[in-house]
Amino acid sequence: MTKQLFSFEFFPPQTPEGIEKLANTRKQLAVLKPEFFSVTFGAGGSTQDRTLETIRQIKAEGHNAAPHVSCVGSSRANIRAMLTTYKDMGIKRIVALRGDLPSGMASIGEFQYANELVSFIRAQAGEHFHIEVAAYPEVHPQAKSAHDDIVNFKRKVSAGADSAITQYFYNADGYFRFVDACRKLGITTPIVPGIMPIVRFAQLARFSDACGAEIPRWMRKTLESYGDDTESVQAFGLDVVTQLCERLLAGGAPGLHFYTLNHAAPALEIWKRLGL
Ligand code: FAD
């Protein structure tokens, strides 16, 4: 059996307290020896410096760091400069995304879709980077159809992506169906499920509305019924997400990528319950 890969995603903190908190989170999660820590990138370059700085800190601590690079609103020159910086730092893995144009930003820049960014990275840096791309078991909200979305995903793989991380979801069957459909279209790359632990319901509902991830009705109704009782929300979340992870791993998922939102505790607890 091939080794299952585990990774944790952070956002680049803005304040000194946030930086300290994330350093502490990393320390706790590093014990689990993940394949890499990734750091998100605000589309249009809004977090460029903070993403770079966070990546620098992760690297300095001796861990594998994977910056996200989103291309919407960017120029080739800007992306080229970023790739050079990361290559010079010894970064070996990039999560390549289109991103979403921030409101108020008029120009989409020189890249329209993520497959163009993947091609550009390959043209600039050859095989230096392992390239991760995004995949959507529940269909990207702007896709014309589920099939179209997989064809577009395949375009990123043909452009040179090595593996994919999915948008989060709470329905394991949807993931397995998606992987089957990808295999039928000849996509052979690993497709690692993205896992969102449940910390606060209002925040989760907001994210899910924005990115098209479905919270199943039975989950939504249960979470709603807890109101401000965060302890119950989190206890329920841990049960549901652990069961999801168990099913995914038992069904052959090649690993798990945790959207940590810079918290260590939920991922640590899920990890413990999974007996990893
Ligand atoms: P694409 O693959 O370009 O797809 C975008 C849409 O266009 C899809 O609907 C697709 O079907 C369609 N499409 C693609 N190619 C074509 C084509 N040639 N013709 C017509 N339609 C096409 N966002 C950030 O801003 N920063 C981050 O750090 C970040 N990290 C993420 C990490 C992961 C693991 C995931 C899953 C998402 C992340 N996102 C991030 C969100 C992501 O940027 C958005 O979901 C965005 O809307 C799509 O990005 P993409 O790379 O999937 O785009």
Give a description of the structure:
There is one protein chain. The model has no long low-confidence stretch (mean pLDDT 96). Helices cover 47% and strands 16% of the residues. α3 (76-88) packs across α4, α4 (114-125) packs parallel to α5 and α9 crosses α10 (265-274). It has helices at residues 16-30, 48-60, 76-88, 114-125, 146-158, 172-184, 201-211, 217-225, 230-250, 265-274; strands spanning 5-10, 36-39, 65-70, 93-97, 130-135, 163-168, 191-195, 255-259. It is built from ten helices and eight strands. It has a single domain (5-274), classed as TIM Barrel, CATH 3.20.20.220. The protein is of the alpha/beta class. The two termini are 15 Å apart. Strands 1-2-3-4-5-6-7-8 form an eight-stranded parallel β-barrel, surrounded by five helices. The structure holds flavin-adenine dinucleotide.
Features of the shown structure:
276 residues; TIM Barrel; globular; alpha/beta
Number of helices, where a helix is a run of at least 4 consecutive DSSP H or I residues: 10
Radius of gyration: 18 Å
Stretches with pLDDT under 50, minimum 5 residues? none
| CATH level-3 fold name | TIM Barrel
Helix content: 40-55%
Give a brief outline of the structure.
This protein is α/β, with parallel strands linked by helices.
Per-chain topology:
Blueprint: E1 5-10, H1 16-30, E2 36-39, H2 48-60, E3 65-70, H3 76-88, E4 93-97, H4 114-125, E5 130-135, H5 146-158, E6 163-168, H6 172-184, E7 191-195, H7 201-211, H8 217-225, H9 230-250, E8 255-259, H10 265-274
Parallel strand pairs: 1-2, 1-8, 2-3, 3-4, 4-5, 5-6, 6-7, 7-8
Helix pairs in contact: 3-4, 4-5, 9-10
